[in-house]
Design a protein that fits this description.
Elements: E1 8-12, E2 18-25, E3 28-34, E4 42-47, H1 48-51, E5 54-59, E6 64-71, E7 74-82, H2 90-105, E8 111-116, H3 142-153, E9 156-158, E10 173-175, E11 178-180, E12 183-188, E13 195-200, E14 213-217, H4 241-254, H5 265-280, H6 298-316, H7 320-352, H8 355-371, E15 381-382, E16 388-389, H9 392-407, H10 432-441, H11 455-461, E17 462-463, E18 466-467
Parallel strand pairs: 7-8
Antiparallel strand pairs: 1-4, 2-3, 3-4, 5-6, 6-7, 8-12, 9-12, 10-11, 13-14, 15-16, 17-18
Helix pairs in contact: 4-5, 6-7, 7-8
Keywords: Coiled coil
Protein name: Endonuclease/exonuclease/phosphatase domain-containing protein
InterPro entries: Endo/exonu/phosph_ase_sf, Swc5/CFDP1/2
């Protein structure tokens, strides 16, 4: 996906049991659903930048699922489907089309279907010009007619068939001597103008017999303000003694050689922050993601590249020699991956036995928990009438209305107790020993307050009100 610049991918025959989401590395996340680990299963893979745009995930069955995304004010529904094969029972086929119809009825506009329909719509479009083009493959069969009938019911177009390509770039399924088209991308007819290209990608070993179908779609979105990324000071570097000592020296210089801190905390805090930024540096502000391919190394990358080239060579020239070369590289890649994973996990287990490793363990657990959630951040709410609000301004306005009503609503109050004596007395200045006790009681690893100075830095570099 990264190499082909694919942002959204519908996958079928995943054969993964469960109803989950997981990070699959390289900045991509898979949402999947499967009942039996030996058959069926569908999923949708999203690029990292679109993961936060997910509003809803519907897992209908191990043959149909959908995602609803909001991309800069535009709603886009992505449906992944896997139709029963030609030899399956009629009841199973009817159940699939019924489930797909049910999903489509709940989607008003803005939908793209990527599915293995296991049917041939055929070449030519006589009588079906409103839902497909002329560029299919071979003859239409009964299952292909079901696809065409579905497109007519839902006012959709079969995108693959509108673009004139060489047959090699239209064939989606190859097995032995069979070459046909069973995988399709569909969208509403009104959105066909947004599709600029659609073809089969040759040379990618994504599946044993199927080939990836890619279409280029341009969405007309509204311009929105990008949220400003806040860069963080790398306070954790103070764990190193040399960094800590340099920070102390620079802080003393910034304070004009004073040992005792000034009485004005705002001035002192700004000096500490500025010194920290200069000495320790700042982060990019983006959250670090723990990738599933953290074990990846150069040997694995090199083997996979050679396997990909061998697959492309075999697709172009189906000789026994090319086939054996590809199979040998497949086995080599599996060995390299297994060896790389084993080495990486051994290093991880060794690190987890240390004090620092305990923190890594909790961080990895939190990351896995986040990756397993479909919707990571609630970005939309409903108004009084149940309509979904997507823009930042409308969401903020609705929250304002809600709290104005909540806080200004008159309720019965308890009567104030009469006759309570108020006590007024002088409050002494905060003493150094009180500050020391407060610092000692504070827990480490907590978020910094408004001054952006973590408590660990105060404990480590400031003692008794003096720079140490």
């Amino acid at each position: 996906m990264e190499r082909r610049k694919v942002d959204i991918l519908c996958v079928q025959e995943t054969r993964w049991k469960g109803s989950k989401a997981r990070s699959i590395g390289a900045g991509f996340k898979l949402f999947y659903y499967g009942v039996d680990s030996k058959r069926n299963g569908v999923g949708v893979v999203l690029k990292e930048e679109f993961v936060r745009n997910v509003l809803e995930v519907k897992r209908v069955s191990d043959r149909v699922m959908s995602l609803k995304l909001e991309i800069e004010g535009v709603m886009l529904n992505v449906v992944s489907g896997y139709a029963p094969q030609v030899g399956c029972e009629v009841e199973e086929k009817e159940r699939f089309w019924s489930e797909l119809d049910e999903v489509m009825e709940s989607i008003p506009t803005g939908v793209v279907i990527g599915a293995d329909f296991n049917g041939h719509v055929g070449e030519g479009n006589t009588g079906d010009e409103e839902v497909m083009g002329k560029f299919g493959v071979k003859e239409r069969n009964l299952e292909g007619q079901m696809v065409v009938d579905f497109a007519k019911r839902m006012d959709m177009g079969v995108v693959n068939t509108y673009f004139q390509k060489r047959e090699e770039h239209r064939v989606t399924y190859k097995s032995g001597g069979r070459r046909t088209q069973v995988d399709y991308i569909l969208c509403r007819r009104g959105n066909l103008k947004e599709i600029s290209d659609c073809k089969v990608v040759v040379g990618e070993s994504v599946a044993r017999q199927h080939r990836m179908v890619v279409c280029r779609m341009t969405l007309m979105v509204c311009k929105t303000k990008r949220s400003k990324i806040e860069k963080k000071t790398k306070w954790w570097k103070l764990k190193k003694e040399e960094c800590c000592e340099e920070f102390r020296q620079k802080l003393r210089q910034a304070l004009g050689g004073q040992v005792v801190l000034p009485d004005d905390w705002e001035t002192t805090a700004e000096v500490i922050r500025e010194t920290g930024r200069k000495v320790l540096g700042v982060s990019s502000g983006r959250r670090k993601e723990d990738k599933e391919t953290w074990w990846w190394n150069e040997e694995v990358q090199d083997s996979i590249q050679r396997k990909r080239l061998a697959k492309k060579k075999w697709d172009m020239d189906r000789t026994e020699e090319n086939r054996q070369e590809y199979k040998e590289l497949q086995r080599r890649v599996k060995r390299e991956v297994s060896k790389a994973k084993k080495k990486a996990y051994e290093e991880l287990y060794t690190r987890l036995d240390t004090r620092e490793g305990e923190k890594d363990l909790y961080r990895l657990a939190r990351q896995r928990d986040r990756d397993g959630k479909d919707v990571q951040q609630v970005r939309v709410i409903k108004d009084r009438d149940g309509r979904v609000l997507t823009s930042e301004e409308s969401v903020q306005r609705r929250w304002k209305e809600y709290f104005e009503e909540l806080m200004n609503e008159e309720n019965e109050r308890e009567k104030r107790v009469e006759g309570v004596n108020s006590v007024e007395q002088k409050v002494d200045k905060i003493r150094k020993d009180e500050v020391r006790k407060a610092l000692k009681r504070m827990k480490s690893g907590k978020a910094a307050g408004p001054d952006d100075i973590p408590v660990e830095r105060m404990r480590g570099c400031l003692r008794n009100g003096e720079v140490c």
